[in-house]
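thread: overnight batch results

M.L. [08:02]
morning all. the overnight job finished for the chain we discussed friday. pasting input first so we're all looking at the same thing
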Amino acid sequence: MNDKPLTDREKQFTVLPEEADPKNALAKANQAVIKALAEIKKTKHPH
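M.L. [08:03]
and the structure it wrote out:
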């Protein structure tokens, strides 16, 4: 991974633009995706 600043075009694709640390934003996005997938599984297969 490189630590140089994002270009304006790259910034368009960041999930949380207000997040100072891009790695932090990625981690948060990843957690959100995992959480969402868990919710989908729950609703598809209620026990």
